[in-house]
Amino acid sequence: MISLRHNLARAAAVFSALLATQTGPGASAAPISPAPDLWQARVYESPGGGRLSYRLYIPPGAATTKLPLVLFLHDHDDHGTDNKRQTKAAAALIPSETVSRPPAIVLAPQCPGHPQLFQLYGQAQNEYWNEFHTYNAKVGGWQHFKIPVGRYNPGPQKYVALWNFDWGAKNGIESEFRNVKVYDAARPGSGRSITFNLDKITPCDKDGAGGELTVEEGGASLKMLNDARRKAPLPFNVTSTTWLECDFRSVKQGNAHCIGLIDGETTSQGDWVDVTRDAVSHTQPKEPTMALRCAMELIPRLQSELNTDPERVYAAGIGTGAIGLLDLLARRPGVFAAALPVAGAADTGTAKEIAKTPLWVTHGGSDWYVRTERSREIVSAVADAGGEVRYTEYPDTGHETWKRVTEDPAIMEWFWSHRRTAAPPSSPVGLKAALLPASRVQLSWSPVPSAGSGTIQYQVRRDGSEVARTAATT
Predict the structure, then answer these.
(1) Residue partners of 55: CB distance under 8 A and separation at least 6
(2) Does the pLDDT of residue 440 top 90, yes or no?
(3) 138: Cβ–Cβ under 8 A, 6 or more apart, which residues?
(4) Which of 253, 356, 368, 424 is most buried, judging by how many CB atoms fall within 10 Å of its CB?
(5) DSSP state string for 216-258
(6) What is the pLDDT of residues 413-428, one digit of tens each?
(7) How far apart are CA 13 and CA 4, in angstroms?
(8) Do the Cβ atoms of 403 and 30 come closer than 8 Å?
(9) Is 206 left (phi over 0), alpha (psi -120 to 50) or beta?
């Protein structure tokens, strides 16, 4: 291993470029998955809407000891809805018969494959939300579906997406959708139904323009033959109480027969960040994806539930998971004690925020999946911003480098050795109390201007008991 160290203009930055030689044909093998019962299966439903499946590894002794919490974001191939695949790679962070690891709680969420689509019928498994995949018992007849879309995909939506998907094949697969409507159960009279018009139905995927469409019953029904993926205008602001209903019928199944609401020209591909993974560059989206937002929300909730060590919160991500990790670091600077982005990419314009977290970045020198230069660029940008960053590049290695990273004692010792010293609680500025009628008191204040970016939470307590809680973003 050759080590190259550079003196930077800013003394606070530590930049180490390491070139590692490949150590054998088994270097890219996947880590051994632990027994399934080591991982608790859970589902998180966000108060703001959105749903995320996740697994949680809790080692023995967690009830009596403050343990570290590690967030792991998987690569694209492990997305889905089975809530299992992501543990294969995450297992490298926990002890095994051959590997010693510090005891830590590991959080491994699973990004849904197509978070906007609900599978009603078809042979696909674990790619779409499949809680409503119940049509098998009524093949050839109509079945009514009522889907609580607000629990999965909140926010302004523009279209209803209709999929009769079978990888471009012309083998007679069929879907028929009828009486499609969306409404908010908390707002009577808010419902909108769709009258299908072929002139307003457009492709929903770059390869979704095939197939044959027929509008029937005066526009109430749309019949799709052979592989076809379409969308039709149905704008609606989806809240936690929004429902999508339809009747569905098919006489021959394909890979996936789906319906859902989408906010753009195509459906999301099920990654932590809605960007093109192999692009030369990208700009950070204004808002995080539903999956990444839910992952961010989970961290403080689990810290409170499991009584973890607040100074030892770590994060790691692979490929599209590393892209998600770097996006998260830019949105939540200073939350993590250290992070391991493996074969990732980021908007270099966010380097100043990312630099607030110590990084050891790694990438394969011949990665075709996520360009190697993307890691080089963010490492340089973070170093220029004064961050603590190290970089290891594996020549003649492609995308599969995670096993080599987790088997490198230097990287793992560096990772576990970091601690984040929490800033002491700050007092509010301009605290005022005003007496109101009925023996009530109104408190007003401003957050501390120098507190930096993030969220400051205040509790109001009376006689030792909490009576109110509020937060301010700075």
Answers:
(1) 39, 40, 41, 42, 83, 84, 86, 87, 90, 107, 108, 109, 110
(2) no
(3) none
(4) 356
(5) EGGGTEEEEESSEEEEEEEEEEE-TTEEEEEEEE-SS--SEEE
(6) 999 999 997 555 555 6
(7) 15
(8) yes
(9) alpha
Quote the pTM value.
0.79
143-147/338-342 β-pairing: unpaired
As a whole number of Å, the CA-based R_g of the chain is 25
Token pair for 96: 């095994």
Whether 109 shows a pLDDT value over 60: the answer reads: yes
Say yes or no to pLDDT of 106 above 90. yes
CA–CA gap between residue 114 and residue 266 (Å, rounded): 11
For 37, phi then psi, to 5°, come to -75, -5
Q: What tokens does 376 get?
A: 């080089």
Q: Which amino acid is at 345?
A: A
Bridge partners, 17 (sequence order): 4, 391
Helix (H) or strand (E) holding 372: helix 372-384
Of 60, 84, 59, 61, the residue nearest 74 (C-alpha):
84
Encode 6-18: b = buried (16+ Cβ within 10 Å), e = exposed: eeeeeeebbbbbb
290-306 helix and 320-331 helix, angle to the nearest 10 degrees:
70
Shortest CA distance to 332 belongs to which of 345, 348, 313?
A: 313
Six-digit token pair at 349? 């314009």
Amino acid at 440: R
Contact 126, 136 (CB under 8 A): no
Is residue 103 classed exposed, middle or buried when 0-12, 13-18 and 19+ CB atoms within 10 A define those classes? middle
| Comparison of pLDDT for 337 and 137, the residue scoring more | 337
Find tokens 């340089």 and name the residue: 380
The DSSP secondary-structure symbol of 135 reads: G
